[in-house]
Amino acid sequence: MDSRRVLEIILEESGAVDERYEGYRKDLTEVVAEIVNIERQHRLLSRNVKKEIADQINTLGGDLAEKLAKAKS
Q1: Which residues have CB under 8 Å from 38's CB, separation 6+?
Q2: Which of 2, 7, 23, 31 has a Cα-to-Cα distance from 56 of 20 to 30 A?
Q3: Per-residue pLDDT at 49
Q4: Cα(45)–Cα(65) distance, rounded to whole angstroms?
Q5: Which residue, among 17, 11, 19, has the nearest Cα to 68 in the 3D structure?
Q6: Does the pTM exceed 0.90?
Q7: Distances from the Cα of 25 to the Cαs of 2, 3, 37, 43, 45, in angstroms?
Q8: Residue 60 in contact with residue 38, Cβ under 8 Å?
Q9: What is the pLDDT of residue 20?
């Protein structure tokens, strides 16, 4: 399967995720796009891809936790 098809599938699936806060799907899509960009850059440069991807995921997780906490207040 080529990279473009994999990206299409990921974006389709992220669009079907529950909207945990207003704008969550958009944020998720942006994180997926950034991860794909990190991976593309990794092909050209020697970089710590695992750390960069983990940072993106942690940022989204922090945003989710913060917005869910605000919603419960």
Answers
A1: 47, 49, 52, 53, 56
A2: 2
A3: 77
A4: 33
A5: 19
A6: no
A7: 24, 21, 18, 27, 30
A8: no
A9: 84
